[in-house]
Amino acid sequence: QVQLVESGGDSVQPGGSLRLSCVVTGDSDTLYFISWYRQPPGKERELVGSIDNFGGTDLVESAQGRFLISRDRVKNTVYLQMNNLKPEDTARYYCMIPNEAWGRGTQVTVSS
Question: How far is CA 45 from CA 13, 27, 40, 54, 93, in A?
Answer without folding.
Answer: 23, 26, 7, 26, 9
